[in-house]
Amino acid sequence: MKRYFGRKVITAIFISGRGSNMRNLIDFSITKKSPININLVFSNNKNAGGLKYAKEKKINTICLDNKKFQILENKLLKILKEKKIKLICLAGFMKILSSNFIKKYDGKIINIHPSLLPKYKGLNTHQRVMDNKEKYTGCTVHYVNSRLDSGKIIIQKKIKIQKNDTAVKIAKKVLMEEHKIYPKAILKIFS
Ligand code: GRF
Q1: What is the pTM of this model?
Q2: Res 182 pLDDT > 90
Q3: Atom of ligand 1 nearest to the CA of 111
Q4: pLDDT at 65
Q5: Is 2 domain-assigned?
Q6: pLDDT value at position 133?
Q7: Residue 91 belongs to what domain range?
Q8: Is residue 56 situated within a structural domain?
């Protein structure tokens, strides 16, 4: 992906909940080395915890809660165009974007997932990892394509599972690594 004459890339983050990755990306975006600027936080859930932080940081927030996701997507695409968004970072965004939406932002949507993809796509990853007695788990930042959690991998971090680990403990450890690799992935795609 290219920057325009070295300018920071106009970026949106999509969230549905807590927003710790969003918060981390916002903090990263104001560092000198960051190639991105966060211009918009979108949520499909008006109660998403992350919205408060984004507002405190004076970032535009938009919340569209619509059962008919098609309508929501069309409204959203219009807003993204108006705001000249060039990169979309999904961070705990729980809606599946349509292939029409993804086509419009082809190669410009990235996501963070709490497993070593292609293993453990979808939800409830940590419990499934524990149930299967895996030796390792981790997290992945990848491009988004029209198949769930299946786009090209940008970066991954592997973590060894310890004997006394539980799904809850693993979730915490993985989240800490997520916060390290998401900014690294962004640096990588613009390097
Ligand atoms: C993270 O584990 C992320 O990998 C997954 O959803 C969770 C979101 O957490 N896609 P947060 O909202 O960023 O704290």
Answers
A1: 0.96
A2: yes
A3: 10
A4: 81
A5: no
A6: 97
A7: 9-189
A8: yes
Assigned domain for 116 exists: yes
DSSP string, the chain: ---STTPPEEEEEEESS--HHHHHHHHHHTSTT-SEEEEEEEES-TT-THHHHHHHTT-EEEE---SSHHHHHHHHHHHHHHTT--EEEESS--SPPPHHHHHHTTT-EEEEESS-TTSS-SS-HHHHHHHTT-SEEEEEEEE--SSTT-SPEEEEEEEEPPTT--HHHHHHHHHHHHHHHHHHHHHHHT-
At 6 the pLDDT is 75
Task: Indicate whether 2 pLDDT > 80.
Answer: no
Distance of CA 97 from the midpoint of ligand 1 (Å) = 17
The CATH number linked to 90 is 3.40.50.170
Test site for ligand 1: of 112, 117, 144, most ligand atoms within 8 A of the Cβ = 112
Is 113 among the residues known to form the active site? yes
Question: Which ligand 1 atom lies nearest to the CA of residue 112?
Answer: 4
As for how many domains the chain has, the answer is 1
Does the structure show a pLDDT above 90 at 5?
Answer: no
Whether omega for the bond prior to residue 183 falls within 30 degrees of 0, making it cis, is no
What pLDDT shows up at residue 49? 95
User: Packing angle between helix 167-189 and helix 20-29, nearest 10 degrees?
Assistant: 30
